[in-house]
Each structure stands twice: as C-alpha cells, then as structure tokens.
Amino acid sequence: MTSILLPEAEAEIEAIVHEAAGSKSPLAIHGGGTRDIGRPVQAARVLSTQALTGITLYEPSEMVLAARAGTKLSEIEAALKANRQRLAFEPIDWRPLLGTRGEPTIGGVTASNAAGPRRIQAGAARDHLIGIRATTGRGETIKSGGRVMKNVTGYDLVKLFAGSWGTLGILTEVTYKLLPEAETETTLVLEGLSAAHAVEAMSAALGTPFEITGAAHLPGSPSQTLLRFEGFSASCAYRRDRLAAHLKPFGPVTAVEGDASQALWRPIADVTALGAAADDAVWRISVKPSDGPAVGARLEAELGSRLLYDWGGGQIWASTRDQGDAGAAIIRAALSGGGHATLVRAAHATRAAVPVFEPEPAAIAAIAEKIRAEFDPAGVLNPGRMG
User: Which InterPro entries does the record match to this protein (predicted)?
Assistant: First the structure.
C-alpha cells in the first residue's frame, strides 16, 4: 500500500529525504496530482507538497509574486485577477485530458514547465520564473534566483528546475514575474483550410507586427484556423482590420471578440479540442511548423490519428490507439528530419514500456545523468520518471 506524506515545512521535507536517501527508498513526488505524465514511478511512498500553501509575497506595483509550491493555481489566479494581472504563459489544466482530479498547484506548473497557446508569444513557465527554493535529493534546501529581474553569474538553477518533473529536487517555493491582464482579446477565424494552407496563413500572421498570442488549426468539417491577439480595445480593433486584410488571400475572415474569443482557446489549451477517445493514447509533438502538415498527414494515414495544431503548427497533438508501442516507432520515424515527441497520455503498462520523453543522444543523456546524480546521488526522487 502506498503511503502519502504531507510535510508542512522544508525541515520536514529535508528529514524525509535524508531518511529515504539513507535507506535507498524511492519517493514519488506529487504536487496536486493532476499531471500523471512520464514513466510510472515505483515507490512505496508519495511525498506531496499540497500542505505547503500560501502566497508569501505579492507586490502588484512590482508585478512579482512568490508562493509556496502547494498553493492552488486557482488561488493565485484569483489574487492576480483582483489587480488585473496574470501569469503570462497561460497555465493549462490537463485534468480533462488525463482523467485526473485534485487541484493544479503552482509547484506542479513549474515542475512540468507547463504553458498554453500563448507560449508562441510569451514563452513557457520557465521564461517568467525568477526564483525558487527546493530540497534536493541530498536533503538540502537550496535557493536560486530572487524576487527581482537582474543579471547574475553562475548556474541558472531556476531554469534547470523548471521542467525537471521532480527529479532534481522538491520545489518548496517559486517566484514569478507577472504581466498586466489584457483589456480584451480578438480571434480571427478562417474556415476550410487544409493543414498546409493553415500553416501558411498562421506563418503570414506571425510575420506581421501585430503580436499574435495564439495560432492554432483544428482539422474538421469545416476546419478552423484561429489567430488571437490581445491588448487595449482600440489596438485590437486596429489589428483586427489590418490583419483581416492581410489574410484576404486565404479566404473570408470572421472576428470573435472578448469572452467568446476566450471560449475558443480554453479547449485548445486543455487539449479537449483534440476530441481523442477516452482510451486513446495522446502524443505532444514539437516540429518545425513547415514540417507539421507532412508529419500530421503521415500520422493520419498510418495511425488514424486525430490532430490539433498549436503554436503556428510547431506543436501537434495526436491521438493513437493505446496498443503495442502506441505508435511510437512511426511517430519518431516521422520526426527523423527534426523534432521530438512526448507520450502525454497512455495506460501505465504502455508508459512503462515505451520511452515517454524523446530519447536523448548519448552525449546529452550522459550530461543529464551527471546532473541528476549531483542533485540526487541516491536516486530517490521520482526515479525513472524521465527514463
């Protein structure tokens, strides 16, 4: 039976990790438990950060926020909304996709480097993360970064820990730089484009100075190609008219404003727009946008995949049947010209047998292993999760 540990302070985490390292007893590290991704971790104990809660610093005038790792994302977003501010990278909620419960936490967002459609313009979570506190596999709590943006020398552990999935240390506090909330947003919609023409249209829009904050293509009957921009109402109206004229060669353009525009992007961020069957595997594929349509066509033909194109075609979500290798060999062969694929959703047995994250070249894998060994020499933090 798996036991769940809920430490309330860093000192408790340090003691738990010291004991685990000494007895070589693996720990599965969880935040809110909403992102069950990676190879299954074989551990008799789960260390959850859910009890490490609370916003520890919020200075709206400086646009910076620090919170303990177990703080619910909804609590942070509510505090920011009261001051018309936001996390720039558009946090995502994969509970519908993964069939998980619980509440997303800011530590889980950081450990997974999660980001939604706005990443194409604003970057990922790590691009706005400016400080961390974390307990390593040595049972030592470290601090990196700070509460202001500045140039520093030395190792950038802040960026290293973002996206490390709890394999280097247990995040206990994170600090983010914020952005003002947009007054409004507009989405331009083109219908009936093929994937190839959609990528052309998205590339044309992204090449303009109109600061596109979302560019996605949803195949279907008819297909929809969506282009979003945000800001002041007058600016959005100006960009709407100019961009619609710029996209005239691709067909009629419909403008969707405000709340209706937001409603278009939530299913894209949360990947429910993919429409994958509940028992399908789901892959996230990163590729050059110009290669996206050919990769997508191959997956449709050979695997019967449903597809969703995001980030101007640079990110493809694809469903496959959760049988055998869940299409891994075909998908990774399709990326032989460049790119990588992550198996985001599949049964435990599939994820235990198939490399979930893109296999690394030997030299990179050796460096990654040395880094993990430095932070977690006993190998007790989420062992094998990224294997």
Answer: FAD-bd_PCMH (IPR016166), FAD-bd_PCMH-like_sf (IPR036318), FAD-bd_PCMH_sub2 (IPR016169), FAD-linked_Oxase-like_C (IPR016164), Oxid_FAD_bind_N (IPR006094)
What single string gives the DSSP state of each residue in 304-359? ---EEEEGGGTEEEEEEESSTTTTHHHHHHHTTTS-EEEEEE--HHHHHHS-SSPP
Q: Tell me, letter by letter, the H, E, C secondary structure of 253-295.
A: CEEEEHHHHHHHHHHHHCCHHHCCCCCEEEEEEECCHHHHHHH
Is there a contact between 178 and 57 (Cβ–Cβ < 8 Å)? no
d(C-alpha 209, C-alpha 216), whole Å: 18
Residue 316 CA to residue 242 CA, distance in Å, equals 28
Residue 45, beta-bridge partner list: 3, 27
Token pair of 323 as six digits: 């049988």
Which residues share a beta bridge with 4? 46
Which ranges constitute the DSSP H helices of 52-133? 73-81, 95-98, 106-112, 119-122
What is the pTM (predicted TM-score) of this model?
Answer: 0.93
Question: Percentages helix, strand, coil for the chain, rounded to the nearest 5?
Answer: 35, 25, 40
3-state DSSP assignment of residue 188: strand
- Model confidence over 326-339: pLDDT tens digits? 999 999 999 988 99
In whole angstroms, give the CA distance from residue 163 to residue 157: 11
pLDDT digit string (tens) for 154-205?
Answer: 568 899 999 999 999 999 999 999 999 999 999 999 999 999 999 999 999 9
DSSP state of 191: E
* Cα→Cα distances 143→59, 131, 369, 374, 380, Å: 20, 8, 22, 16, 21
CA neighbor of 381 nearest in space, from 140, 151, 148:
140
Number of Cβ atoms within 10 Å of the Cβ of 274 = 20
209: preceding bond cis by omega (within 30 degrees)? no
What domains sit in the chain, N to C, each tagged with a CATH number? 48-180 (3.30.465.10), 184-269 (3.30.70.260), 272-353 (3.30.70)
- Rounded CA separation 327/349 (Å): 14
Q: Which amino acid is at 139?
A: G
